[in-house]
Amino acid sequence: MASAGEGLRHGERVPQRRRGEALEQAILQAAAEELLESGYAGMTMDRVARRAATNKNAIYRRWPHRAALGAAAYRHLAQAQIPVPDTGSLRDDALALLRQANATWSSPRGAVLRDLLAAVGDDPRLLGLLREQADGSAMDAAWLTLLDRAVARGEAPPEAVHPRVASLPIALLRNEYALRGNPPVPDTALTEIVDEVFLPLVRGRASGP
Amino acid sequence: MASAGEGLRHGERVPQRRRGEALEQAILQAAAEELLESGYAGMTMDRVARRAATNKNAIYRRWPHRAALGAAAYRHLAQAQIPVPDTGSLRDDALALLRQANATWSSPRGAVLRDLLAAVGDDPRLLGLLREQADGSAMDAAWLTLLDRAVARGEAPPEAVHPRVASLPIALLRNEYALRGNPPVPDTALTEIVDEVFLPLVRGRASGP
DNA sequence: GATTTAAGGTACTCAACGTACCCTAATCGG
DNA sequence: CCGATTAGGGTACGTTGAGTACCTTAAATC
Fold first, then answer.
1. CA B77 → CA A91, B35, B71, distances in Å?
2. For the segment B12-55, what is each residue's pLDDT rounded down to a tens digit?
3. What is the pLDDT of residue A9?
4. Shortest Cα distance from A33 to chain B (angstroms)?
5. What confidence tier does A117 reach under pLDDT thresholds 50, 70, 90?
6. How far is CA A114 from CA A105, A125, A187, in A?
7. Residue A12 lies in a domain
8. What does the pLDDT look like over A146-203, one tens digit per residue?
9. pLDDT range class, residue A133, cuts 50, 70, 90
10. Domain check: are A63 and A135 in the same one?
11. Could you say which nucleotides of strand C lie within 7 A of any protein CB atom?
C-alpha cells in the first residue's frame, strides 16, 4: 500500500489540521450531534472535543462557555423554515400550523430546545439567539400571514389581525408543554385551542371598540 | 452568665441534637433561604448543610438528590394563598389577578421557580410537586370564580366559563416570561392581554355555537 | 525561508454532587 | 434505670465536568 495523502502530483498539499471556519463547523456539528443523542446535559465539552477530533482549547477560543456553544449548536441544527399552510380555511390553516409546532416540540429537538432555554437562564444574548431560530418572529409572521388571508377571504374581521391574536395559539401550546412536560400534546387539545379560544377570539374582536 | 440549657429544674433534659421533624424543618428552612439569596444554582448541598448546622448525610437521608430538596424547599417557602379579587368588574378583577401573578413571578421567588422547573427536567413527581403550589389548580380555580361572578352580574355569557378561558391570561403571562426572561412584564402588556384577548374572547364566546 | 498565528495535547485547579465510615447522642424496649 | 437500636455529626473520599495554563507543532503570511 502506497502512503497516501502526502505525495500528491505537482506537490499539492492537503492540510491535515483544520483551521478557522472548517474547524468551527466541525465543532458545531459534533455539538449538535451530542445534543440530539444525549441532550444538553450530556453535551459535555470533553465529549464534543473528542467527537470533533479536537480539544477544548479550540472550543473555548470560540465560545466563552458551554451554554454559548449549546445555543450555537442548536442554531446549527435548526434551520427552521416555516411553510405557511394555505388550505382555504382559517381553522384548517391554524390546526396545520399548530400540529407542525407540536411535532417539532415533541421531537428530540424540542426537548433540547427546552433544556437550552432553561440552561441559558437570563443571559439575554443567548436567549435572543435561541429564540430567533426557534419560534420567534418567523412563527409570528406565519400566523399573521394566515390571518391576513382569512381577512382577504372575508372569513375574519380586519381587527383580528393583531400581534396578540397571532401569538396566541403558540403561547397556549407552549403553555401545555410547560404544564405537562415532554410528551406531545394530544390532538384534542390542539383543536380545543383553535375552536374554543382562537376562533372565538377572532370572532369576538369583530364588533369590538 | 450562667451556663444555660443543661441544668434545668427537675432534671428536664433539653436535647442538643435535633432529630426527625425538627431537623427536617431546619433543613428546609435553610434550603429556602439559600434559594432566595442565591437562587437554585447557588443552593449547594454543602451550603444548605452548613446553614442548617448539620451535614449532607442528614439531607441525603431525606431527599435523594438536589432537585428533590429544591422542590421541597420551594414548597416550604411558597405557602400560596390566592385571594380572589372582587371589584365588581370583570376587567378590574382580571387585571388585579394578573398583576398579582406578575409581581410574584418577577420576585426572587419567581426566578427560583423558573430555575427549579428547568432543573427538575422531566421528573414527573417533582414537576407535580412544584406545580401544585406554584400556579396550578388554585390559580385556575381563582379565574373560574372570577368568571362565575361576572356571569352572575350579567357581565359575561355563561359560555365564557370554560377551563380554556380561565387559564388563558396566566398562560399568556407565562409566555411573556418565556419570551422576555426575568424582568417584570410591563403593565401595558397586562392590560393588552385583558383588553385585546381576554375580554374579546369572553364576548366572542357569547353568540358562538 | 522566517515569523506569526492558531490547533493539538495534556495536565491541572476548582467546585459540587453524591457516598462511605466511624463516632456519638437520643430514643426505645425491657 | 440500662442496654440496644436508631439517626445525626464529622469528615474524608471518589467522580465528574467546567474552565485554564502551557508548551509543542502545523499552517498561513510576509
1. 44, 9, 10
2. 556 678 888 889 999 999 999 999 999 898 999 999 999 999 99
3. 44
4. 20
5. confident
6. 9, 17, 21
7. no
8. 999 999 999 999 999 999 999 999 999 988 988 777 778 999 999 999 999 999 999 8
9. low
10. no
11. 6-11, 15-21, 25-27
B209–A contact, CB cutoff 8 A? no
Determine whether the distance from the CB of B61 to the nearest atom of strand C is below 7 Å: no
Q: Within a domain: residue B15? A: no
Q: Residue closest to C5, CA→C1'? A: A19
Chain B contact for A183 (CB, 8 A cutoff): no
Helices (H), A107-207: 108-120, 124-134, 137-152, 163-180, 187-192, 199-204
Which residue minimizes Cα–C1' distance to C16? B44
Which residues does chain B have with pLDDT short of 70? Answer: 1-15, 80, 122, 132-136, 207-209
Burial of A99 (0-12, 13-18, 19+ CB in 10 A): middle
Q: How many Å does it take to go from CA B19 to C1' D5?
A: 15
Does residue B72 share a domain with residue B106?
no
B2 touches chain A (CB under 8 A): no
Distances (CA, A) of A101 to A112, B105, B131: 15, 26, 24
To which residue does cell 416570561 refer?
B177
Predicted pLDDT of residue A132: 67
Query: Considering the domain boundaries, does residue A85 fall inside one?
Result: no
Pick from B40, B55, B78: which residue ends a domain?
A: B78
Give chain A positions within 8 Å (CB) of B173.
none
Asked if residue A41 has pLDDT above 50, the reply is yes
| CA–CA distance, B204 with B160 (Å, rounded to integer) | 9
In a domain, B201, yes or no: yes
Domain span including residue B70: 20-78
Residue A78: phi and psi, rounded to 5, are -120, 60
Q: Taking the model in full, what pTM does it have?
A: 0.82
Amino acid at A21: E
